[in-house]
Write a structure and sequence with these properties.
Blueprint: H1 2-16, H2 19-45, E1 50-56, E2 71-75, H3 80-85, E3 94-98, E4 110-112, H4 119-140, H5 145-151, E5 159-162, E6 168-171, H6 173-207, H7 210-214, H8 220-274, H9 279-304, H10 307-335, H11 343-358, H12 360-365, H13 370-375, H14 382-389, H15 396-424, H16 434-442
Parallel strand pairs: 1-2, 1-3
Antiparallel strand pairs: 3-4, 5-6
Helix pairs in contact: 1-8, 2-8, 6-8, 6-10, 6-14, 8-10, 8-15, 10-14, 10-15, 15-16
């Protein structure tokens, strides 16, 4: 055990001291935070208002299109030919031509611009024309659009999870789905990322002949286990640092944006004391109130999710899945002389992981079905599939059984990998086949 701990320490310190580790540890949180922050920040800063010139031949839509924050409409008196000729001299983003035949030919509207209009502009205009055409046809048919609007009802079914003691707590299928899929994909990513590091480390030591010196002092099994556990500790260290740094960056950004909102609210309050709130300010206040209610509902739903259990299970299945696959990756690394030669052995090993991700949508739609159950029991697929199932609720006995099978699977894969490892690390210049691997597995000595 002492020799294994020395190897673990060597693997851990040699990797965390590398520049690549430091760079990725810093860049990782910045990139993850940027993915969350930049789109929000850009949308807040974007004040580029696009003016659409409207040529309405039938005068059906005059002053009927509402302006948005980013799109405003300018109704023109000139015809299409004159408007197109003067387009370059104006400040219009595009020209919207609506012929008289629009009532009977909904596809007759045309949008002209000197560059390709954005998809958001096109969709927004289409939705406005669609709504106004529907209103015109309702009026022509003698149907009051307000009555029809009152008939249309948005339905949102609130889901609750029943407990054994008879109580119920609010849940959310969409959030549960995202959490499950995110957990599964994260484990898939980390197994490949850190498992491949073990394989590359074995290949490097084998090709540099350092391995010959090392195995003169320790057993091949001790070397393999020390390398696997050492890289696992590096992975956990990096993962925890990513979480802490990402949380810090996002929290700092939220505080910054919150301070700006407080300033904006104080300005609105000041304006309210000096004059009546205008329409836009009232709209902003109503929007903020609606957002606050949505945030409260989201907090209630998130509060019903047992994140402690999810995090504990994530760490267990990450470690279990990593240890299982890292032993197989180490065996592959010991059997080849270069990374290019690993492809023939990698595919059979990675197929279960790829299959688990491929079936993730099916598992989400039917988390308690027989396929989901068996895939969450098989050690090669359980780390991903069980993480997808856990947010939906998994019986305690199934969790225990899956965990026990994963541990047994790790022990079994380690035993098999060790038999390949002890022979492969000292073999050079020979193209290894599956037949040769079978000989190593069945070799007694």
């Amino acid at each position: 055990m002492k020799k294994i701990s020395i190897i673990i320490r060597r693997e851990y310190l040699s990797r965390v001291r590398k520049k690549s580790f430091v760079v990725m540890t810093i860049l990782g949180p910045i990139l993850m935070a940027a993915l969350m922050i930049v789109p929000i920040y850009i949308s807040k800063l974007s004040d580029d208002t696009k003016v659409i010139g409207v040529i309405d031949e039938g005068n059906f839509f005059y002053k009927r299109f509402p302006d948005s924050e980013s799109i405003k409409f300018d109704y023109l008196n000139s015809d299409l030919i004159a408007s197109k000729e003067n387009f370059k001299n104006g400040n219009h983003y595009a020209l919207l031509y609506i012929p008289k035949t629009i009532i009977n030919s909904p596809n007759a509207a045309q949008l002209f611009s000197d560059k390709q209009p954005s998809i958001n502009v096109k969709i927004y205009i289409e939705s406005l024309i669609k709504k106004e055409l529907e209103d015109l046809k309702l009026s022509a048919s003698g149907i009051d659009k307000d009555i029809l609007a009152s008939i249309k009802t948005d339905v949102n079914v609130t889901t609750f999870k029943l407990r054994e003691e008879g109580t119920a707590e609010k849940s959310n299928t969409e959030i549960t789905t995202v959490l499950g899929l995110f957990g599964g994909i994260l484990i898939y990513f980390f197994i490949f990322l850190f498992g491949s590091q073990v394989m590359r480390g074995v290949i490097e030591e084998k090709t540099s002949r350092i391995i010959e010196v090392i195995v003169s002092s320790v057993k091949p099994f001790q070397l393999m286990m020390g390398k696997i556990i050492g890289v696992a500790m590096v992975g956990l260290t990096q993962f925890l640092l990513w979480i802490i740094l990402t949380f810090g960056i996002v929290t700092a950004f939220q505080s910054f944006m919150h301070d700006k909102k407080i300033v904006k609210k104080s300005e609105i309050s000041y304006n309210a004391n000096s004059k009546m709130l205008d329409k836009d300010e009232l709209k902003n206040l109503n929007t903020e109130k609606k957002d606050a209610n949505q945030i409260k509902d989201l907090k209630d739903i998130l509060g019903s999710i047992n994140f402690g259990t999810m995090i504990a299970m994530f760490i267990f299945y990450f470690l279990g899945g990593y240890l299982l696959y890292a032993s197989l990756f180490a065996a592959i690394g010991s059997a080849v002389d270069s990374e290019a030669d690993t492809q023939q052995f990698m595919l059979p090993v990675t197929i279960p992981l790829i299959l688990a991700i491929f079936l993730s949508q099916f598992i989400i739609n039917n988390p308690d079905g027989p396929i989901s159950f068996w895939l969450s029991m098989i050690p090669l697929t359980s780390p991903i599939v069980m993480m997808i199932r856990i947010p939906f609720g998994v019986p305690y006995l199934q969790l225990v059984l899956s965990a026990v099978l994963l541990i047994l699977g790790f022990l079994g894969s380690t035993w098999l990998a060790a038999k390949i490892y002890r022979t492969g690390i000292l073999m050079y210049g020979k193209k290894v086949s599956y037949k040769e691997l079978w000989k190593w597995l069945t070799y007694k000595g």
